[in-house]
Design goal:
There is one protein chain. This protein is mainly beta and 211 residues long. It folds into 2 domains: 1-16 and 34-145, Glycosyl hydrolase domain, family 43 (Tachylectin-2, Chain A); 148-211, no CATH class. Helices cover 2% and strands 37% of the residues.
């Protein structure tokens, strides 16, 4: 069965959307389009932003701006989902991918490389990498499902992931400054409303950690 690729219509209007700016003043919304769950990063020259497209493909639209007011589309993180039959309308039981697909990306720039982690309900997490935000993008690894995750490249070389639904969980992804994958070494903590923390299990030892 031929795969039908849907354009991310929710963000297609970005190319023509114009923010009205005059000197230090501007008017919101800067983007007259539906762009949920945005995540931004900067490589020193441009600001880049990714939004949620759910079940629509190509997905994870990448936008670029020099002032965070005027945005242009420059590409997509992935062209299609091919890991489950419902994304190609080929599920034998008629299951659809409606409201599934890509959600809530974490978009980061670190040491000359771009990272984009997102989840797909029922299918876990996905980490894509690229040398340029405009692409091409490559699927680096399939990862655990981590709700509304945000990658953090720390100054000491560790890579952390903040995620959770309710309580905030902290997961370690790497220790040597390069992303290795969230399945290799894991540490968990719960950040409580008063700033206190619960136990963290890291490399088989219990330690305390606080941000």
């Amino acid at each position: 069965m031929k795969v039908i690729n849907f354009s991310a219509l929710a963000c297609a209007a970005l190319v023509s959307a114009q923010a009205i700016a005059a000197g230090p003043s501007y008017r919101n919304p800067a983007i007259f389009a539906d762009c949920p769950d945005v995540s931004l990063c900067c490589d020193g020259k441009y600001y880049y932003m990714v939004s949620t497209t759910m079940h629509m493909v190509p997905g994870a639209p990448v936008m670029r701006s020099k002032d965070m007011l005027r945005w242009e589309m420059v590409g997509y993180v992935f062209d299609r989902f091919d890991f489950a039959p419902e994304f190609s309308f080929e599920d034998p039981n008629g299951k659809t991918a409606y409201s599934g697909g890509q959600w809530a990306s974490s978009f980061k720039y670190h040491k000359g490389k771009f990272y984009c982690y997102f989840i797909s309900n029922g299918h876990g997490g996905f980490l894509y990498t690229a040398d340029k935000a405009e692409g091409p993008w490559k699927l680096h690894s399939r990862e655990p499902f981590m709700h509304d995750a945000s990658l953090l490249f720390d100054d000491d070389g560790k890579v952390w992931v903040f995620h959770g639904d309710g309580w905030l969980t902290l997961t370690i992804a790497a220790r040597n400054g390069e992303y290795e994958g969230m399945l290799k070494d894991r540490a968990f903590t719960v950040v409580l409303p008063d700033g206190a923390t619960r136990r963290v299990v890291y490399a088989g030892k219990e330690v305390n950690i606080k941000f």
